[in-house]
Write a structure and sequence with these properties.
This protein has 181 residues and is mostly helical. The protein is built from 4 helices and no strands. It has a domain of 117 residues. The radius of gyration is 41 Å and the shape is rod-shaped. The two termini are 62 Å apart.
Length: 181
């Protein structure tokens, strides 16, 4: 064991105190003469070229976007089907009301509404018989037609909308999340 003099300790103490030491190894924590390292650059957003490509050369996102767009178009078609069924039902209801209030059948508007309703609900005419009440028979028959158009329109539009929602959900599952870069 080597003994030091007090002077040697005094000279070495300030140099050792200036450098922090690693607790585990006892070695200096950093080298004062080593060049200063710069902070690493922040991660950049992925470039479109680095995305995974399919066989056709398009990115996977393009396929998901196409399916999502088609799904949105199918949802629009479902809304149009329900709107058409609702307008037909409204036409039939208006014709029933005009017939029940004894509207002037020679009027062009009334005649057009009755002809349009007869086009859509004509197959339902004569479905139910009421003896002595022809207005009541038309009201009930065309009322049934009105309900059938609304129910079938709702069912068909729901089926079409489910197909469209599947496309939109596919897009949401297969597109990457938006980045904040």
């Amino acid at each position: 064991m080597r003994l030091r003099s007090r002077g040697a300790r005094a000279e070495a103490a300030p140099a050792e105190a200036a450098q922090p030491r690693d607790r585990a190894t006892g070695a200096p924590a950093y080298d004062a003469e080593a060049p200063v390292r710069e902070r690493p650059a922040p991660r950049e957003a992925p470039v479109a070229a680095s995305r995974r490509r399919s066989l056709a050369g398009r990115s996977r996102d393009a396929g998901a976007a196409a399916v999502g767009t088609a799904g949105a178009g199918v949802l629009l078609l479902a809304r149009l089907v329900m709107a058409a069924a609702s307008l037909i039902a409204l036409l039939i209801a208006l014709a029933v009301v005009l017939r029940d209030v004894d509207a002037n059948t020679t009027n062009t508007i009334v005649k057009g509404i009755h002809e349009g309703a007869n086009f859509f609900a004509g197959a339902f005419t004569g479905l139910i018989r009421f003896s002595g009440h022809p207005k009541r028979a038309i009201t009930v028959d065309w009322g049934i037609a009105l309900i059938v158009y609304l129910v079938l329109g709702a069912i068909v539009s729901r089926v079409i909308a489910n197909v469209g929602r599947g496309g939109v959900l596919f897009e949401h599952r297969h597109r990457p999340a938006a980045s904040n870069y």
